[in-house]
Design a protein that fits this description.
alpha/beta, single chain, 196 residues
């Protein structure tokens, strides 16, 4: 059965980017520390990364995140979702309007302009029997959890306090989480919750 998994790296103080994030500074000041685990040689970090990408039938991201990953300093053959792993799944972007041009034309992109629920439905259709991963940004994941669209929340808590940046949560209804697993490494604590 296809699950909708919100999967994101976050600082101990709840930020998914450092301060000053934008197209030319994707993760913000100090934000690179959030993703140290994804480039780690630690076998547990590698396992978390490979298991997550292997189950990804489709990936959802918001337009601001798309603009960063498609920008000049964004993804390439070495860096990006699925790079160096089993392959890159189709991507679904939630946006008010599709971009006029793209740099990453070799990837499979779908742009949904009718809202997050429709983006989840499009991604679920593309995913087949695999999972749909909401990779961010923070506003997209927060909105999806608030709307009751998420089955699993997978947090990669980096051992850094950023002090400011883009918060993962800015409000919304109460959601009960059931902790399913915790894997601690030197670069992150990987926590998986079912969203009830």
């Amino acid at each position: 059965m296809t699950r909708i998994i919100a999967d994101i790296s976050v600082s101990v103080d709840g930020y998914v980017t450092g301060p000053g994030a934008g197209p030319d500074n994707g993760l913000g000041d100090g934000g690179e520390a959030l993703h140290t685990w994804a480039f780690s040689d630690d076998p547990d970090d590698r396992l978390v990364l490979s298991e997550g990408t292997a189950r990804s039938g489709a990936v959802i991201l918001g337009r601001r995140l798309f603009d960063i990953v498609d920008g000049p300093g964004g993804w390439d053959n070495e860096v990006g979702y699925g790079a160096g792993e089993v392959g890159r799944p189709p991507f679904v972007v939630v946006t008010s309007s599709p971009p006029e041009s793209m740099r990453l034309t070799e990837l499979d992109w779908t742009f949904v302009t009718t809202g997050l629920s429709d983006a989840v439905a499009a991604a679920r259709e593309r995913a087949g029997d695999l999972d749909v991963v909401l990779m961010g940004g923070g506003a997209t994941i927060g909105s999806a959890i608030a709307a009751g669209l998420v089955d699993v929340l997978s947090l990669h808590v980096a051992p850094v306090v950023l002090g400011a940046g883009t918060p993962l949560f800015t409000g919304g209804p109460t959601r009960t989480l059931v902790q399913r697993s915790v894997t601690a490494t030197s670069t992150a604590t990987h926590v998986i919750y079912d969203v009830v």
